[in-house]
Amino acid sequence: MTDTLFAIPLVTISGEKRTLADYSAKAILVVNTASECGFTPQYKGLEQLWQAYKDRGLMILGFPCNQFGRQEKGSNQEIAAFCEVNFGVSFPLFEKIDVNGEDAHPLYVYLKKQAPGVLGSEKIKWNFTKFLLSNQGKTIERFSPTTKPEELKAKIEAILK
Fold it and tell me: What residues sit in the active site (predicted)?
């Protein structure tokens, strides 16, 4: 099943085709993002995590999504520019996707099944829901939008050991 996870097609925000297998990492943090959300300042915390742990094997992958309050209306180019200019984001961003519904991206379909939310719900409730997984895809843990990136340090450290 983890082979399936690492083979899921992804497209970067600049249009390059990738899979998780393209990212050599010990830990991967997947986050659905939005530029006009109350949680948007978490970009800063995500970038700080990226800078602190990327050389030790952390990969952060941001997936813009417009399904929650239409808070990600821009084009992929506008999103990339916003993230770079306002938060100095240098971790990989991907094309805008759906995380719920019939058009949910296969990565999110997989992650939601592996790490359901509150009361077993698979549905993503809002922007900045986070999934932390090992490079083997064995450890998958889900964190709510209210969980600040800096609160994940101990969990990241445990995977990076």
Answer: 37
